[in-house]
Write a structure and sequence with these properties.
Layout (H helix, E strand, L loop, with lengths): L1 E5 L6 H14 L3 E4 L10 H10 L8 H7 L9 H13 L2 H8 L4 E4 L2 E4 L16 H10 L4 E4 L5 E7 L2 E6 L3 E4 L5 E6 L12 E7 L4 E7 L3 H10 L4 H5 L3
Parallel strand pairs: 1-2, 4-5, 5-9
Antiparallel strand pairs: 1-10, 3-4, 6-7, 6-9, 8-11, 10-11
């Protein structure tokens, strides 16, 4: 079974629509979303609607957390906070309620799905974890495979024979070893920050035990225009290029 794993759509409907089309071409049997459907981008309502229409299981990201708990807004920088206030106004009340009810993590086909860091953190970044912290995470996890988002970058963290290995990954197929445990950082659909402006997601082949990083082109200029017309911070547009 092939499972598409997306994260950090951030209201970028243009990118998400192209990713959905690519999933179909790639033969994905199912999909999971790792959070941050909203924030930064101009079409949060439309992005959330697509997730719901397609019944894609989803966990809560830190931007959804700020929608659910406005007091959390103070932890964001000024630009992100302004984006979230605009985002909240673009969401229907029923959508805000749905986003506020998303779970902090899911176990899907035996793999852990969480926005920030295993086992259940919405807000911690994987890059904040040193080797000692990662060893504790792997030792306490019931799952051999975890998928995370939040950083907007791609990374493969493995644990085997008592050692941690961290590898930046890019486009292509990566075999996994049954003897090791893994955390896969799946990058971002709507606002990648790894120096490449393609929308990105991961295709996990449960049978072959591989992950494939997929790069997807989309109409960046259209998204940029919408961001600026709606009065979002200019940095949100510049980051997409």
């Amino acid at each position: 079974m092939k499972i598409a794993i997306v994260s950090d759509i951030h209201g970028n409907r243009e990118a998400f629509c192209e990713v959905l089309a690519d999933m179909e071409r790639a033969g994905a049997d199912a999909a999971v979303n790792l959070g941050d459907i909203v924030g930064y981008g101009p079409e949060p309502e439309e992005a959330a609607r697509l997730i719901r229409e397609k019944s894609i299981p989803s966990v809560m990201g830190n931007h959804e957390l700020a929608i659910a708990k406005p007091n959390y807004l103070r932890w964001f920088n000024e630009s992100a906070r302004r984006s979230l206030l605009l985002t909240r106004d673009l969401l229907q009340p029923e959508t805000r309620k749905w986003l506020s009810g998303l779970p902090p993590f899911l176990v899907h086909h035996g793999a852990l799905m969480v926005h920030g860091c295993p086992p259940d953190s919405i807000t911690e970044y994987l890059f904040e974890m040193d080797d000692e912290a990662l060893e504790r995470i792997f030792a306490s996890s019931e799952q051999r495979l975890s998928f995370v988002g939040h950083t907007h970058t791609l990374e493969l963290v493995s644990f085997g024979e008592g050692s941690i290995e961290r590898t930046e990954i890019g486009r292509g197929l990566f075999p996994l070893e049954k003897s090791k445990a893994y955390i896969v950082n799946v990058g971002s659909v709507g606002q990648p920050r790894d120096g490449d402006n393609h929308a990105k997601y991961v295709l996990w082949d449960e049978t072959a035990y591989t992950v494939e990083v997929r790069y997807v082109s989309y109409d960046i200029a259209s998204t940029v225009d919408k961001i600026l017309r709606l009065g979002f911070p200019e940095v949100n547009a510049k980051r997409l290029w």
